[in-house]
Amino acid sequence: MRNNRKGGDAPGELAEGQLWKLSNFYIQIVELGKRLIHYRMLSDLKEPGARIKTSSVEVMWEYLKSRGARLIHNGSD
User: Fold this and answer.
1) DSSP letter at 61?
2) Exposure on the CB side of residue 2, measured as CA atoms within 13 A
3) CA–CA distance, 39 with 28 (Å, rounded to integer)
4) Does residue 5 belong to any structural domain of this protein?
5) For the chain, what is the domain count?
6) Which of 4, 5, 49, 63 is deepest in the core (most CB within 10 A)?
7) Does residue 6 lie in a domain region?
8) Euclidean distance between CA atoms 5 and 10, whole angstroms
C-alpha cells in the first residue's frame, strides 16, 4: 500500500513557515497538524492580514503537486 505523502516524487514534507510559489500567487503554511493544515493564500508577499484557511494535509499536498508548486522558503531558515 502506497503512502501518498511520502512518495518518491515528493520534494519533501510540509512544514510550518514554508512558502510555496504557484503560477500567480503564494501559499504560506501557518500551522501544521497531523490531519489539518492552516494556510494563507497571498497574491502579493507584502499583503497584510490575509485570511487563514484550513484544509486537510492530504488535499493540500495533492493540490501543491498538481499545480506544480515550487518551494521558495523552507520555513526552518
Assistant:
1) H
2) 6
3) 5
4) no
5) 1
6) 63
7) no
8) 7
Q: Is residue 51 part of a domain?
A: yes
Distance CA 52, CA 26 (A): 13
What are the residue ranges of helices labelled H in the chain?
A: 57-66
What is the average per-residue pLDDT within 19-35?
95
Take residue 30 and report the three cell numbers written for it. 501557518
Give the integer Cα–Cα distance in Å for 61 and 15.
11
Say whether 4 sits in a helix, a strand or coil: helix
pLDDT tens, 9-19?
344 689 999 99
Instruction: Flag whether pLDDT at 7 surpasses 60.
Output: no
**What is the domain range of residue 69?**
16-73
- 68: in domain: yes
CA 7 from centroid of its chain's CA atoms: 16
Angstrom distance (rounded) from CA 68 to CA 51 = 23
CB 49 within 8 A of CB 28: no
